[in-house]
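Internal tracking record. Fields below are filled automatically when a chain is submitted to the structure queue. Please do not edit lines marked as system-generated. If the sequence contains nonstandard residues, flag them in the REMARKS field before resubmitting.
Queue: standard
Priority: normal
Entity type: single polypeptide chain
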Amino acid sequence: MVDPNPDSVKAGKIAARVLKETGELVQPGEKLVRLCAHAEKKIVEYGGKPAFPLNVCINNIAAHRTSPRNDPDTIPEFGLVKLDVGVHVNGYIADTALTIDVDETLEGFVAATEDAFGEAIETLQPGVALGEVGKRIEKVIRAYGLRPIRNLSGHSIGRFNLHAGKSLPNVGTRGTPKIEVGEYYAVEPYATSGSGQVVETEHIYIFINKLDAEPLEGTTEKLRKYLRERYGPLPFALRWIKTKDDKVDLLEEFRTLLKHKAVHGERMLIEKSDRPVSVTEHTVFVSEKGPVILTRTD
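SYSTEM-GENERATED OUTPUT FOLLOWS
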């Protein structure tokens, strides 16, 4: 029988614990940057490393929002707060997310994605086409009177590779690959009362190295090399980078890295019609007998 790698199991347990503990800190007025710092510190404390910065996405913001340095934003009095935690142990990644209904007026959103995940897991069997899983997700979310987000999907996960090539759609889709034994997936149903699509904004808080980028010059080249050595192919945040040289303008240096395509910026995504978004996400290993959820608390 094929079993999940022990490091992936460890990463999953750490991710689940950190997500639960960070979720308990979510309350109106709490600074988002404090949540990010807490989660990322605990990941290391528990024996892992961040696979990406903690994402804290509120209401219509669907993905790719982490705190910049000195972020003034706080948890609102009401609405949906999404926390997305990524952990890796020796490159084996666990990716998990939850949605918190701050004032308990949007419980249907949370229930929709949780139930959709449960139905997806029943379908996530070896030999099943990924589009069939998406069909099951879509059916559940629509039963709640909501829409799945068509242009966000789950994804296969590889070692040091958060998006390993296969997409797991949140709607019924034809012509998709089949699920195979030994694969890892981030299964992440999204629900909204809006259009069911996300669009990019101009805001960039998360970056990824382009490992085939051409060498640059001076301080910018030193920064490029540092980022490659420190984070490799995994996402990182500008607030993680510090310098003792007061003459170095990190914002300007990152603009140069983006201009020369030495790094890629993940643009923040919002729901197209500015409606609330919820998500439930777990990392799942596919064994011969079916799915094994790696990111659930015991």
